[in-house]
Amino acid sequence: MLSGGSDGVIVLYDLENSSRQPYYTCKAVCSIGRDHPDVHKYSVETVQWYPHDTGMFTSSSFDKTLKVWDTNTLQAADVFNFEETVYSHHMSPVATKHCLVAVGTKGPKVQLCDLKSGSCSHILRGHRQEILAVSWSPRYDYILATASADSRVKLWDVRRASGCLITLDQHNGKKSQAVESANTAHNGKVNGLCFTSDGLHLLTVGTDNRMRLWNSSNGENTLVNYGKVYNDSRKGLKFTVSCGCSSEFVFVPYGSTIAVYTVYSGEQITMLKGHYKSVDCCVFQSNFQELYSGSRDCNILAWVPSLCEPVPDDNETTTKSQLNPAFEDAWSSSDEEG
């Protein structure tokens, strides 16, 4: 696992639990520390493995750079410099015909950097304020979602000259039929984006303390109600969805906890408590069915599904689970977890 810190340092962890104990500490394999010649000067906001090969990874930072790293030598293979602070970047998990990295900065334009040519090949114009989150579709090679402080979320086909396909409208056209530019996704900054694992829906979070679920093909607000989803982050908020669960979950940083909701019903399943300062990011690992969360308390916690053995009941011949059925395939929120 890659992690980036507010001190600019990047650390690689081995996630294997070699101790076989239920509570364990992952070992750091190596790091790009403060004494490394290519280390980021300021906070690292995003890290991502190259989707097709762990021999390479990318990082972006408030120091106005996106860096491409060789995992084996831990040297910077390429550096993209920007005029503004970088909030977010993302490489497509499925694209085979392009190597574009989408980059969101403090400026209103979305920039696409081509790893093959080493230059910024496209600029997407349409937002009016900083770009706080970017995410490629996990279903279509050329579809990109962007979220901005201007309250808007846009879907783009990066092959088109005009670019923008849809500007998401929370009112589904009822209040703003005349002008697409009036459409807003939230009543505040939109600072987080996440496609569902099949790419058919898009989740967004905003500083209006709301999370919304959108149909990603037609831009319709599905009107699923998640209740208040507390969000006072001034930068991008990294949240995540499950993959391979019987009902899919969304995990959202919520102060010093992580709120867990079912994606399509909006029901809050639990709150994961373990951190003691604000949680900035979380990521789901589908192979292990584990969740990892990073917090300002300088800890990364690993969360695993609660698996309870059925225990015999004295008064009955049948067996009962110790756990409420609603949580049997879900997540423990006890303070000892992680």
UniProtKB/TrEMBL annotation:
GO terms for biological process: DNA repair; response to UV. The keyword Ribonucleoprotein does not apply. Part of the CSA complex (also named DCX(ERCC8) complex), a DCX E3 ubiquitin-protein ligase complex containing ERCC8, RBX1, DDB1 and CUL4A; the CSA complex interacts with RNA polymerase II; upon UV irradiation it interacts with the COP9 signalosome and preferentially with the hyperphosphorylated form of RNA polymerase II. Interacts with ERCC6/CSB (via CIM motif); promoting recruitment to lesion-stalled RNA polymerase II (Pol II). Interacts with KIAA1530/UVSSA. Interacts with a subunit of RNA polymerase II TFIIH. Pfam families: WD40 (PF00400). Gene3D superfamilies: YVTN repeat-like/Quinoprotein amine dehydrogenase. SMART domains: WD40. This is DNA excision repair protein ERCC-8. Substrate-recognition component of the CSA complex, a DCX (DDB1-CUL4-X-box) E3 ubiquitin-protein ligase complex, involved in transcription-coupled nucleotide excision repair (TC-NER), a process during which RNA polymerase II-blocking lesions are rapidly removed from the transcribed strand of active genes. Following recruitment to lesion-stalled RNA polymerase II (Pol II), the CSA complex mediates ubiquitination of Pol II subunit POLR2A/RPB1 at 'Lys-1268', a critical TC-NER checkpoint, governing RNA Pol II stability and initiating DNA damage excision by TFIIH recruitment.
